[in-house]
Amino acid sequence: MSFMRVLQHSKILRVLSRFYVCLCEKSEIIHRCIRFLIINTIASHYVRDPHAYWKRKGKVYYNEEKTTVLDKLRRQNLFFAKNIKRLNPRVLCEVGCGYGRLLKANALVVSSEIVGVDFSLPQLLNAKKYVGSNNVHFVLATAKALPFRNNRFDVTYTCACIMYIPPNEYLPSINEIIRVTRRFVVHDEDLEMSRHYFGYNVMNTYRKMGHKIISCTPTLDAHGCRKFVIARLDKGEQMNMVENPTDSRISDTLG
Ligand SMILES: C[S@@+](CC[C@H](N)C(=O)[O-])C[C@H]1O[C@@H](n2cnc3c(N)ncnc32)[C@H](O)[C@@H]1O
After folding, report:
1. CB of 89 closer than 6 angstroms to any ligand 1 atom
2. Looking at ligand 1, which residue's alpha carbon is closest to its atom 11?
3. What is the tens place of the pLDDT at every residue in 172-182?
């Protein structure tokens, strides 16, 4: 696009945004309607292809977070690391690790082997740079099909990942996380549905499956329905399951 074209477009955008601001000032209802339309368009676009969304978003996600919510994230990292340390894992996994801020925080307090899983390659490439620890391996995979043997991890956690998973993949993903985990699952997720993403009552899901909730607290700095949940897995006989030889290795898919 030529420079003149860009200028023309930006002029049109400026006029449109002024018009929008005028409308919003005139009527709160118009403002709400427009917001509702915009948010729903974004949401339906997301639902059509979450993977494509995160592949795109993964390229800018780290920079956006760095410049907007750094303080909040620092506090959340410390909170997470403190809680994960208490669970004393030998092998730890984060599903939906993004650019790896929590992996990095946890790697400072536990000496365990740590695995970060995400289905967005750009996020994982950023994570590999950002985390910079030999203890941490990265695996490109989706939550509903984790390439690990049963009970591979002592603790698996997610933070703001499950709430982005569409309803038809929610239970398959939770079941996969339970399958690969031996002792504790930790979630920091929205429990309620909101306009931006899906919300699930993960606490109820674990309870219904017969696992014990050992902690459920409001998440630091977040709005009311976001909770930090720790479930202790009661796997009974499953704890002695024979390992599946086909998926018994953690691979660093990024080489
Ligand atoms: C909001 S970011 C949170 C990243 C990180 N947990 C944190 O708190 O900084 C959500 C991440 O979950 C990943 N994700 C979403 N759905 C996923 C799925 N079904 N399988 C694997 N990763 C997923 C996205 O690619 C993205 O990196």
Report:
1. no
2. 96
3. 999 999 999 99
